[in-house]
Write a sequence for this structure.
């Protein structure tokens, strides 16, 4: 299957690397990338064909993946016009809504929207995907096989849920890094070197996440199992509960969802268009 990437940066490289590692041929991929050094890196690393600008070979690919920054999306989409009616275009750009992408592509309808997260760069990501009802199964499967090369996938019934995916798993790695920073800082305060505190903290997060992923029990049960009455874990958890930390985390994730919705409205806003379109962005 011919797959064209428009934008050959971090995320496109991770997906291509993941696909080649699972046995797909480099000849299946073609990448449009304006940056000469980045084109050379893609050719050297993967042996894929690269182009500085889109031509008809891109337009005829079975799947076109637009992997540019959200702010570059309008220009990249406009350069792809006109597309064959049966072409499928997938965007992985945060916040770009399909209605806006369709407009920039001249009313094209074969569209899929995906929201990966940064662990995709080490093939440990999770991607939320949405395709409108008219998109054929073969196109959905093609999109799915691309994103499973960099982790797990979750298909959504409603495009609006991609704002919630952005809030939970898109921004999610930052919440985990924040918690890692805090526990590591506590380790240093309690007398460990930075290196020791890092080793203790990181392996605890990796191990606990792996245990939670493998267990049939919810995290609350796993947490209870390490919490003895009157013990050390109970003292720590009581401190967190007294500060209402769980409620604040839920507030933070909801705030990220609201911001994702606002950004979608801002990114889709045409220059000179009535700013009242921002009122589309109700909170999540
Ligand atoms: N990285 C992640 O983990 C992650 C997670 C979730 C979603 N995403 C989404 O994935 C998209 C790509 O992210 P990234 O981290 O891969 O970004 P990136 O490394 O900046 O890659 C984008 C590439 O596209 C090139 N480009 C710019 N305009 C172009 C055009 N008109 N046609 C073709 N190529 C063009 C850029 O070149 P220049 O550098 O010269 O501009 C750059 O090399 C973003 O929209 C982001 O929201 C990424």
């Amino acid at each position: 299957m011919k797959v064209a990437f428009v934008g050959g940066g971090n995320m496109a490289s991770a997906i291509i690397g993941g696909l080649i590692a699972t046995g797909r041929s480099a000849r299946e991929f073609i990448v449009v990338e304006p940056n000469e050094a980045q084109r050379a890196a893609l050719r050297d690393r993967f042996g894929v064909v690269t182009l500085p600008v889109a031509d008809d070979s891109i337009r005829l690919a079975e799947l076109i993946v637009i992997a540019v920054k959200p702010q570059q999306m309008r220009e990249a989409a406009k350069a792809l016009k006109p597309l064959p009616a049966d072409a499928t275009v997938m965007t992985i750009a945060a916040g770009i809504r399909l209605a806006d992408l369709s407009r920039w592509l001249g009313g094209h309808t074969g569209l899929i929207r995906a929201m990966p997260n940064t662990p995709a760069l080490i093939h440990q990501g999770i991607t939320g995907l949405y395709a409108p009802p008219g998109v054929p199964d073969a196109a959905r499967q093609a999109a799915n096989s691309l994103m499973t090369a960099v982790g797990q996938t979750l298909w959504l019934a409603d495009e609006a849920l991609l704002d919630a995916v952005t809030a939970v798993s898109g921004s999610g790695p930052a919440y985990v890094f924040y918690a890692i920073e805090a526990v590591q800082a506590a380790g240093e305060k309690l007398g460990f070197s930075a290196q020791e505190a890092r080793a203790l903290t990181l392996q605890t997060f990796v191990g606990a996440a792996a245990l939670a992923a493998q267990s049939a029990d919810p995290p609350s049960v796993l947490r209870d199992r390490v919490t003895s009455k009157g013990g050390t874990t109970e003292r720590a958890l009581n401190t967190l509960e007294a500060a209402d930390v769980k409620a604040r985390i839920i507030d933070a994730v909801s705030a990220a969802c609201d911001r994702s919705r606002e950004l979608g409205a801002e990114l889709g806003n045409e220059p000179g268009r009535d700013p009242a379109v921002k009122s589309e962005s109700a909170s999540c």
Notes: The pocket of NAP is lined by residues 6-12, 32-35, 38, 67-70, 72, 75-76, 79, 92-94, 116-118, 120-121, 170 (CB under 6 Å). The CA atoms of residues 235 and 252 lie 25 Å apart.
